[in-house]
Amino acid sequence: MLTYIIRRLLLAIPTLLLISLVIFFLVDLAPGSPASEIPLTVPAEVRAKILESMGVNDPVYVRYLLWLKQFVWVEPLNLVDHWFGTSFAEGQQRIISYQTRGPVFDIISQRIPQTMTVIGTAYLVGVLIAIPIGIYSAYRQYSWFDQAGTFVAMVGFSVPTFFTGVLLIVIFAVKLQWFPSIYDTTLKVTDWASFMKQVKQMVMPVTVLALFNAATLSRYMRSSMLENLGQDYVRTARAKGMSERTVVLRHVLRNSLIPVVTVIALGIPGIFGGAIITEQVFKINGLGAALIGAIHANDLPTVQTLAFIFAVLIVTFNLIADVLYGLLDPRIRYA
Amino acid sequence: MRDTAGTQAKPVRMERPRSQWRDVWDQFKTHKGALIGMAVLAFLVAFVVIGPFVWHEEKLTTTQTYLNKNKPPSLTYPLGTDHLGRDFFLRMMEGGRVSIAVGLVAMTISIFIGTTVGMLSGFFRRLDGPLMRLTDLFLSLPLLPLLLVMVMLFRDALARVFGPELGTFVLIVIAIGVTSWMPAARIVRGEVLALKEREFVLAARSLGTPNRRLILRHVLPNVVSPVMVAATLDIASAIITESALSFLGLGFPPDFPTWGRLLFDGLSYMQQYPERVIWPGLAISLTVLAVNYIGDGLRDALDPRIRGR
After folding, report:
1. How far is B291 from B44, CA to CA, in rounded Å?
2. What angle do CA B88, B94, B99 make, to 5 degrees?
3. Is the confidence metric ipTM above 0.85 for this complex?
4. Could A26 and B146 be called an inter-chain contact, meaning their C-beta atoms sit closer than 8 Å?
5. Interface residue of B180, B248, B268 to substitute, partner A, most A CBs within 10 Å
6. Distance between CA atoms of B109 and B174, rounded to whole angstroms?
7. What is the mean pLDDT of residues B92-116?
């Protein structure tokens, strides 16, 4: 198992390097240079100086290597400094955003809490809805509950989140005025009233994302349960005279959760992508909004860094899912 | 007895030979959701393809347009007019045309790349490793951010070559196609790996069939069914991706409506005219739902283990 993890980790390095190459060069070689953002009234020599200070005059491979070094070495050191008060990264150049002329990771650390609270809650709620629905749908296969579940899952899977979000805004924010349509990121939770306010503004984005995630997850849960319910060990357990509750919730559920857990892990990076849209709908000032803003402003370092972070998340969670599967299922043994 | 005499007198009728596609259709018909999906999709396609020819064209002068804006639904304008006095019903038709066209063309590109990659890596062992690593690499790319970046970076360049509308169309279709072929490639590879070992391939090979004909004549027709299912689902995801791009403001130009673009434009007027977001959103959702149900039905119908039960 350990050798397997080490091998996968080593394999992840060339993959990530290739991805970083793709992302960096796609963003960098394309037309639309940072120079076009500088007003034409700026004198030529000043413009040249600005460009030089941005470091765009270096050859592209130099910029790539510098960016890579900053990403994998300088920025983690900065994080260590931030946590432990050390000063390893002092004087090292960090990834600088064209927009703010400040470190990109400062923007990211400001934006992560908003994204994490909304998306984390939404995913959790989605999982908590999906698992019971999947269990009951499978246990009563082809009942009205199962049929309804299948239909709702199909709808939840097909209707894009930007439509469900807008629909919720029209109904609950515009017509009924129960919830605010815009997420207030400056809100600080200090007492009961502000906590209720936070809950209120989170209800709609969380519902949208949770429903979308629950739709697919409940289907996985259902088919996994169905597969296990027909197994011999279930008959044995029933023959031993165990209560239906023990059979389903202890024997079958445990085994059915194995593949579902990996699906849940695999879905985590995907929801960051989906969150880009949800953040746009509810005007949440998170990572997705930062990416969109950077794209519109031609802020290449931010775009490259954020896109690469998403890629790192995908690769990491793929690895976690594979390892989890091996840990949970004793039948799977990685050589 | 008279009964038996009567039946004997009748000429013996042979059961007509049934084609495979007839069987598939018979099985498909038993899937209620797929049939409804088919009907809904046929209606929507007719609405966007034939609709603009039947519906009256707009010929308004600037002053008339000004007076015409934000009209409520009426007989002339069943869905009212938008903030520039344009017939919203007509814009829904035209927007749907683009949305569905994007879905179909992007699906074709993605299926073409996916089938080629899957076929090559399944058939030629030497290509298998590199091509599957490439597939894995593409699967690890953050697709939505990259799509956004691609659209932002190449939109102007392509607009200069093809013009703003066609340029965006080409860009979006290619971008979606290039980022969505991986599932199809994996499915095709799996099928080809199994087919390659079958006797009919061996027979064809021993007759001296060159690889090219072996692939096109013998292997390719046998992977059509899973590819068809993947293609159907690809249409749905392409439509969603296009409208997501338009929704984020990185899709088609404003005077060139798609359902996603109409939804995006309607957002600014959501408080006063919520129907302007609801209609395009409903159209997207219905199309995708219908296509997904058809894919579901196709999957059952094309599976010979389920068929005929």
Report:
1. 11
2. 115
3. no
4. yes
5. B248
6. 7
7. 91
pLDDT digits (tens, 9 = 90+) for B282-298: 999 999 999 988 888 88
Q: For chain A, what is the largest distance between any 2 Cα atoms, rounded to a whole number of angstroms?
A: 88
Q: How many angstroms separate the CA of residue B214 from the nearest CA in chain A?
A: 34
CA–CA gap between residue B268 and residue B273 (Å, rounded) = 9
The Cα–Cα gap between B191 and B222 comes to 8
Q: Which residues of A touch B265 (CB under 8 A)?
A: none
Q: Is the dihedral of CA B212, B215, B221, B224 positive or negative?
A: negative
pTM of the model: 0.84
Q: Average pLDDT over chain A, rounded to whole?
A: 83
B24: helix, strand or coil: helix
Task: Look at residue B107 in the predicted model and tell me its pLDDT.
Answer: 93
Tokens of A58: 């270096």
- Flag whether residue B272 sits within 8 Å of chain A, measured between CB atoms: no
Angstrom distance (rounded) from CA B180 to CA B160: 26
Sequence-distant (6+) residues with CB within 8 A of A189 are A195, A198
Chain B nearest C-alpha distance from A128 (Å):
25
Cα angle for residues A215, A219, A222 (degrees, 5° grid): 140
Q: Which of A169, A273, A303 sits opposite B270 (nearest CB)?
A: A169
What confidence category does residue B309 fall into, taking pLDDT thresholds of 50, 70 and 90?
A: very low
> Token pair of A231, please?
């197994």
Q: Say yes or no: A303 contacts chain B, CB-CB below 8 A.
A: yes
Instruction: Pick the closest to residue B240 from B207, B196, B287, B274 (CA basis).
Output: B287
Can you tell me the mean pLDDT for A106-119? 84
pLDDT digits (tens, 9 = 90+) for A17-65: 888 888 888 887 666 566 666 677 778 788 778 777 777 777 778 888 8
- Which chain A positions have a beta carbon within 8 Å of B143's beta carbon? 273
Q: Tell me what percent of the residues of chain A surpass a pLDDT of 70.
A: 95
B55 and B48 Cβ atoms separated by less than 8 Å: no
CB atoms within 10 A of CB B135: 21
Give residue B116's pLDDT.
Answer: 93
- Tokens for B45? 């396609």
- Among B44, B138, B148, B293, which would you mutate to test the A interface (most chain A Cβ atoms within 10 Å of its Cβ)? B148
Residues of A in contact with B236 (CB under 8 A): 158
| CB count in 10 Å sphere of residue A306 | 28
Q: How far is B263 from chain A (nearest CA, A)?
A: 8
Interface check A307 vs B, CB under 8 A: yes
What gap in Å lies between CA A295 and CA B179, rounded to an integer? Answer: 19
> Least CB-CB distance to A170: which of B136, B243, B270?
B270
| Contact call for A157 and B292, based on CB within 8 A | yes
- How far apart are the C-alpha atoms of B227 and A38, rounded to whole Å? 49
Asked if A158's CB is within 8 angstroms of B285's CB, the reply is yes
Q: B58 pLDDT exceeds 70?
A: no
How big is chain B, counted in residues? 309
Residue A283: closest C-alpha in chain B: B248
Backbone torsions φ then ψ of A131, nearest 5 degrees: -65, -50
B292 to A154: CB separation less than 8 angstroms, yes or no:
yes
Q: How many residues does chain A have?
A: 335
pLDDT for the residue numbered B12: 67
Q: Given CB atoms, is A319 within the 8 Å cutoff of chain B?
A: no
